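Reopening this one. Same input as before:
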Amino acid sequence: MPELRKDPVIGRWVIIASERSNRPGAEVLNPTLPVGADTCPFCESHELATPPEILAFRHDSTLPNKSGWWVRVVPNKFPAMQIEGQLVRMGQGMFDMMSGIGAHEVVIETPSHEMDMADMPLGQIEEVLWAYRERMIDLHRDHRFRYVLIFKNHGPRAGATLAHSHSQIIALPIVPKRVLEEVEGARNYYEYKERCVFCDVIRQEERDNMRIVSENELFIAFHPFASRFPYETWILPRQHESFFCDIQMVEVKSLAQVLKRLLTRLKTALGNPDYNFVIHTAPFADEDLPYFHWHIELIPQMSTQAGFEWGTGFYINSISPEDAARRMRGVDAGSDDDEQDALTGEGATG
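Same output, byte for byte:
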């Protein structure tokens, strides 16, 4: 079983999951992702190559774990966390540990082996986002879990070991240190100014109008003022919302528009770079948090963290967010009207 071990100096938790070493490409320093669909476990008609599905958006006449789906969620075959069992906390001398209880799921975003998220019709991206929402709501019901992280690794430099477009969901019995730092910083700002720092950032970015990459009525995407990495981009809802799982259909449609435009610009301007995105939502709570604002952080893998970064926690960014935004805005991202929905039948989002 995986274990969670706590660093006694800075309070960071580490997952020890030896079984992960068995996954494809795990032992390769710079893996080349397979391109053939004949052996891909995520392709349609290969459903038995994955664990049984947890959720699928599929045609009414089709059976679970068979063809006929357009988004499918399955347990990760090589999980970082194990869903069965009780959460046990323990000590080993001065060290703190706990059992690696959690959930690790894969969202297979399309039946098409060759289609990246940037190339998907808007309707398909909406379906993927809706699947994220549905799984987060369901995992929230398990009282062993305190946080759910949704993330996507695109390309080998970003950590992907399969080429077929997919993302992942991990439910944890603790709140990650990175998220706690955001929550604490946002809380301190709110206690001093009685305003949400993320809402203030949106207003500042609108006034400056130098770092915005894409926007619509409900969402804004921009390169942060203190970007850590080249072309790092954040997407925030304009209206204050703490929890991603509270997102509604109209917001999903708007978010899909901004996300598709952003990915299209990245692919066109930067030559389809490998990238990661993560959804930072508030830790599980019974009520809205006035100081925390859920958001997506997208990081193209265009630089390498070396000794200075590891030794200091600082980052050296080789392009200013203002210059990055000018380059990105100069790229044609297409029109919202050009997305003829590839789905046949009525989708989960209506």
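So the earlier flakiness isn't reproducible anymore. For the record, The mean pLDDT is 90.
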